[in-house]
Specification:
Blueprint lengths: L3 E5 L3 E6 L8 E5 L9 H9 L3 E5 L17 H10 L4 E3 L4 E3 L6 E6 L1 H9 L5 E7 L14 H11 L8 H9 L17 E6 L8 H10 L2 E5 L13 H12 L1
Parallel strand pairs: 3-4, 3-7, 7-8, 8-9, 9-10
Antiparallel strand pairs: 1-2, 2-4, 5-6
Helix pairs in contact: 2-3
C-alpha cells in the first residue's frame, strides 16, 4: 500500500491513507518524540479496518515548516480537523479529498498523548485512545529530564526538531502544553488511557490523578514499559479501542 502525502495550513506535512472501503471515520496518530516518523504498518492496518488515517509531523519537526513548540502542538491537530471538510490534496497527483461530518478519533502516545488530550476539548473529536501519555511536564521521571532531552534531541536528531531553548523551557514552566492544568476542560468520557507501572519515562501516578479528576477510563499494567502507539496493532488493544468507541 502506497502512503500518500498532503499539507495542512501550508506548514504541516502529513502522511495519510484513505479507507479500504467507503467511510468517513477518521483516526489521527499523534506520536511521541524524539522518534523517527515511521507508522506504515499502523496506517495500513487502520486503513484496512475502514478508517481514514492521518500521521502529521508537528510544526517545526521533520518535513513540516515552522518552529517546534512556538505554539502548542495540539493546535496542529485542530488545524488538520478544520481542513478535512474543506478539502486537501494528495500531493503525488493533486487529487483532492474531502471528509464531511466524519467521526474523528485520536490514537496517541507519550508526547503525542498530551496533544490528543488537549485537542479532545474540541467537540469534533469523539474519542482519544492513549498509551503512556505525558500528563504533567513537571512530574516526569528522572530517566529523561527535560534539560538532558533537549541536548539529546539537538545532537542526535539535528534539524529533525527545529527548536530553541526558550521554546523548550516553556514545557518546564508547567503552563504550556500541559494536560494536568486543563482537567476541568477535558471530558473524561472521551478518554481511554493505558499505562504501565514500570514506565521509566512517563510516570503512571500523574495519569492516575488525571483519570480521577476527569473521570477518564484507565488501565494500569504491572509491566509494559514506555508504550508506543504501535501497540494498537496488538489484538487486545485493538479490541479495547473498538469497544471504547462504541460507548
Amino acid at each position: 500500500m502506497y502512503i500518500l502525502r498532503t499539507r495542512f495550513k501550508k506548514e504541516i506535512v502529513c502522511e495519510f491513507l484513505p479507507p479500504a472501503r467507503k467511510s468517513n471515520r477518521v483516526i489521527i496518530l499523534t506520536s511521541g518524540i524524539p522518534s523517527v516518523p515511521a507508522k506504515k504498518e499502523v496506517m495500513e492496518f487502520l486503513s484496512k479496518k475502514g478508517y481514514w488515517v492521518f500521521f502529521p509531523r508537528y510544526r517545526g519537526t521533520w518535513e513540516s515548516d515552522g518552529r517546534f513548540l512556538k505554539i502548542s502542538p495540539h493546535k496542529d491537530i485542530i488545524d488538520i480537523i478544520d481542513q478535512l471538510p474543506k478539502g486537501f490534496p494528495n500531493l503525488w497527483n493533486n487529487e483532492r479529498f474531502k471528509i464531511q461530518s466524519g467521526k474523528i478519533y485520536i490514537i496517541g502516545s507519550s508526547f503525542g498523548g498530551a496533544a490528543a488530550l488537549l485537542a479532545s476539548r474540541d467537540a469534533r473529536i469523539a474519542k482519544v485512545f492513549l498509551f503512556s501519555p505525558v500528563i504533567d511536564w513537571q512530574a516526569l521521571s528522572k530517566v529523561e529530564p527535560l534539560d538532558w532531552l533537549y541536548d539529546f534531541m539537538k545532537t542526535a536528531f539535528g534539524n529533525g526538531y527545529r527548536l530553541n531553548r526558550a521554546s523548550w523551557n516553556k514545557l518546564k514552566s508547567g503552563r504550556f502544553y500541559n494536560p494536568i492544568r486543563h482537567t476541568n476542560e477535558i471530558d473524561g468520557r472521551k478518554v481511554f488511557i493505558i499505562h504501565a507501572k514500570d514506565d521509566k519515562i512517563t510516570p503512571w501516578r500523574p495519569a492516575r490523578k488525571f483519570a480521577r479528576l476527569t473521570g477518564s477510563k484507565i488501565i494500569f499494567l504491572n509491566k509494559g514499559g514506555h508504550m508506543g502507539g504501535s501497540n494498537i496493532l496488538r489484538p487486545v488493544y485493538w479490541k479495547r479501542f473498538q469497544k471504547f468507541i462504541k460507548i
